[in-house]
Amino acid sequence: MYVIRLGEVKHDFIIWSCSCFLRISKCFRRYPPSKRNWIIAGACFIYLFYVVSQVVYVLPTDRLSGKYKYRGARGIFASRFDDTLQETTGSRVAPNANVSYSTTPKYNVVYITLKSKRRKPAIIRGTIRPKLRKKTVSKNRRSQSSFINEVDIGTEAEEKPRHTYQSALSRKSSRYVYNALKNINPNNSDTESHYSAIRIYSERAPPWFSKGDIEALRFLADSKISGIKEVSFTGRRNVFLFESMTDASANSPSKYNQMDDNAVCQGRCALIKRPLDTSEVFAFHLDRILGLNRSIPAACRRFTFFEDDQPSPVVLWDPTLAPADNEAQSSIRVTWGSYQHSLKDKCWHRGAVPTAESGCSSIHHYEWSRLALFDFLLQVYNRLDRNCCGFKPRKEDTCVKLGRHQQCSDPDSIELVHIIHRKHDPRRLVLIDNKGYFDRDEDNLNFKLLEGIKELPEHAVSVLRSHRLREKLLQSLFLDEVYWESQGGRLGIEKLIDVIEKRAKVLLTYINAHGIKIVPMSM
To answer: TM spans, by residue (predicted)?
Structure first.
């Protein structure tokens, strides 16, 4: 009965609506055509007014949100690590990063969300480096660009072919650099005073950075340049430093400041490297995330007085490093054979002083484990495997050009390179020239870097196992805006992280297969 009554109600409603429509249309037809047109025009005007009112109601909200959408100024939630550092404002958020903001100061307001895993992971076949186009330029312009493009500063300068760099450090190029910098005003910064290339949008920076790291990154990216000088490095090649005599750097209590007359740097300096060495910036962030804390702070910076305007990595100049005036550019002489013996003897482990007959160096046993893990992830071979004995090198590799890959018959006599420590701390290594290679396939990794290693640091391995390495690298590298943009934004950074994640999986498999112990290394 209820269903029948409901159907009757619906039928009556339809009949009533139809009759109402017929009555209204009959009354509408009685009016003359002029009145009917006015009625239709009035109805259209009322509808148009309603639509416009809705649009005007919505627009102020969109404009307001657009105005403050990117007001993530570096000074609003700037880091307060150093009172001498001025807070900066007026930044622009990278378009490839997913960042949200919050006004609550106790939370970290920088959030980089992780995308779902891609169906086809990126495979990098070629070396990640900018393509250099041949241009016909005048001699003056060529001498200007040769400072950045041709001078091998830092990594293996003495190993490059002589014809490539025969004019790089010539008097003409050096004179051009000096003349270009004579008119630099110390009061004018190379970057705008209100703009910082180090993007920190919260009260606190990522926890893996110390107060000194953030101060060093701000100095490298934003400091005022008072001059550039050419100094000899390791007694064999020259390098270029940019110097800053600002009040913030000169008055800050830093171990890198040496204001004596005999110091190479009066104030605070940074080493300028080639644009192709930007992997050192990635290496610094990876070092801090893994908790190794053995590399020197590095950032990316553009120099307006160089015509090519390519972003160049700059590394903090550390005068506390022990001198390395030998062929291997090391503070101590260590061969592959003595290195393997020191791993077996566990030199300086648990405070035990080695005997003179043991052949131990001053480096602590745990330092070699940190070095091996770090070099394997980045495939830095020039420290432990200078002759490329542990993998198949390419024709463009330095060891092939110099014929060193054919000298692997007596590995014990091969000398390790860049074994550096500080003058006041001979037990700890300092990792310099961390030029990584991201184009090495998984079937051609250099496992010789892990030979003799029986222990690895617990904290670093836990980061690799936590599946949060990608998230931390994104958050960390996002701080350096110049490096982020030079690698193609988030898409380019993701490709680099893909390579490191694959090597991390291979390393974890190697640890389980060889029974390597994971121990806490507090030193």
So the answer is: 38-59
